[in-house]
Amino acid sequence: MWIADKWKDYEVLDCSGGEKLERWGKYILLRPDPQVIWDTPKEIPEWKKLNAHYHRSSKGGGEWEFISLPEQWSISYNILNFNLKPFSFKHTGLFPEQAVNWEWMSTLIKETLKKEPGRSLKILNLFAYTGGATVACASSGPVSVTHVDASKGMVGWAKENAALSGLAEAPIRYIVDDCKKFVEREIRRGNHYDGIIMDPPSYGRGPKGEIWKLEENLYPFVELCTGVLSENPLFVLINSYTTGLQPAVLSYMLNTLIVKHFGGSVEASEIGLPVKANGLVLPCGASGRWFCS
To answer: How many CA atoms lie within 13 A of 134 on its CB side?
Structure first.
């Protein structure tokens, strides 16, 4: 498992009874987590020091109970800074476990630029959410990033995070669009990228009602994306939060579609966050990585 264990402003304090207890900066949040099927004693004092609690409804969805939490606050990861806001369906605007992938991409970019001084890399971030991967790549050197998400609000949030991280003037192109349609247009335009990141939802709708179902659409979408990779690409990263989509599935897809055309190597694993109370690791989905070797 790849573990995001370098955070200072975030930690999973404990998890029990279908919920995880987290510290986001100086605030303590309690949120549902479907992986937490155990019911262990809630012994650490932070269980009684909540700033906010998201209650899941038996009818689906849920709502926040705010005790003492601001509408917005920020946390840092190394040189990166992120605005956080509690919003619908328990989210805060950041998936901290993705830091392990930010580190991986940043290292690849820096090593490549060191070996090939003067090379300018182009990265495509699809289903890009609030831009964690965007700012991680943009902060790693002379890199241009195209950030694509179907939600105008998420793209605006990503711009905030870039500015907060000192990247307001960085070569980041923000696109509000359906990711599949955007990639199709880029293929027609003849545009290419040295790295692709995709963090697709299990289910979603595009700005014009386009339906996305991960199990049905991911393989043909990855196949489509091979058409925008450069002649000498650096990496492809696929993230999945769908329980039934195991790391081996991501590995199989990348080997079938990317290695077939470009060679290179594939690795895939669960990603996770350490739990302070007991030293165990909370699983948080899976990632598949292709890289030029």
So the answer is: 37
